[in-house]
Design goal:
- By secondary structure, the protein is α/β, with parallel strands linked by helices.
- The chain folds into two domains: 123 residues, 3-Layer(aba) Sandwich (Rossmann fold), CATH 3.40.50.2300; 105 residues, Winged helix-like DNA-binding domain superfamily/Winged helix DNA-binding domain (Arc Repressor Mutant, subunit A, Orthogonal Bundle), CATH 1.10.10.
- 41% of the residues lie in helices and 22% in strands.
- The protein contains nine helices and 13 strands.
- Helix 6 packs across helix 7 and helix 6 crosses helix 8.
- Bound molecules: calcium ion.
Length: 236
Amino acid sequence: MAATSILIVEDEAAIRESLREALARSGFAVEEAANVRQALEASFTTVDLVLLDLMLPDGDGLDVLAAIRRDKPFLPVILLTAKGEQADRVSGLRSGADDYIVKPFGVDELLARIEAVLRRSVDRRENEETIEVAGRTIDLARREIVQEDGSKHTIPEREFELLVYLTNHRDRTVSRDELLARVWGVDPRGLRTRSVDMAVARLRELLGDDSQNPRVIATVRGRGYMLVLSPAEAKD
Ligand code: CA
């Protein structure tokens, strides 16, 4: 089997070189691009994952992300962001990036993110292709929500995992702790975080669900969340 190939899009030569060395040491094949132009020239078909800097000398990394998503809806992308680029990070995740990491980061942390993202992308491909939820179609292959009015939205990786988990357990309420453990992969004991609620809010927005009176993802007070079955499904 060929080595897993990673494309590094990063203009700072020192960062690019240290990434190349660390990834090569871990057995990855590495391709490099120092700007938007070079990134767009890369053949995404031979790449298994992209590390994407957002601030590039000749343009915006988000344009590279958009080009990747048009070509390869599956291809995992991890954003390399600087402190203070919060807004870019959010728009990156909304545009379908799988994860992000804030510079400066440790090699171990980056390798852990890469492995997690690659693993999730394999799991996803083994899933069924579309699911119907309350009049919306979730296209698993393209990681898109098609709303009742036909409009389409790409679902960020975490929200996508959350939605798939709720879908696979749609017959019951799923607690925040269970979601933290199974979707976020963290130990929820003693952890105080709004991550789950924020991800649910983003998902409701993408689904066109009403946050005050949700029809798709219901809040079960004091217990967690539950996917609401559409009338056709509830009849079975
Ligand atoms: Ca940069």
